[in-house]
Amino acid sequence: MYQLQVLVSVKAAGVNPVDTYKRAGTYPALPPLPYTPGSDLSGVVEKVGAKVSKYKVCVTIRTHY
Is the distance from CB of 16 to CB of 38 less than 8 angstroms? Predict the structure, then answer.
């Protein structure tokens, strides 16, 4: 694990409609390949890197970008 990484045990994930458009190639601004869609998730922090201060182990988190 790198010093600035967080390992999350994902409990639920979703696909945003924008991710679907990007995957279909119909979204105006396509990301460079390789691209992994999806950033909507909730889970539990399992490990944190040495320089991570925002998250702690065993904390439930959710993300949306």
Answer: yes
Total-model pTM: 0.69
pLDDT in tens, 4-59: 999 999 999 888 888 888 888 888 888 887 877 777 889 999 999 999 999 999 99
Retrieve residue 20's tokens. Answer: 């679907």
Chain position carrying tokens 């998250």: 55
Q: Which residue has the tokens 């105006």?
A: 28
Dihedral sign of CA atoms 11, 59, 52, 64 in order: positive
Return the SS3 of 22: helix
Q: In angstroms, rounded to a whole number, what is the distance separating the alpha carbons of residues 15 and 37?
A: 8
Strands 6-14 and 40-48: antiparallel
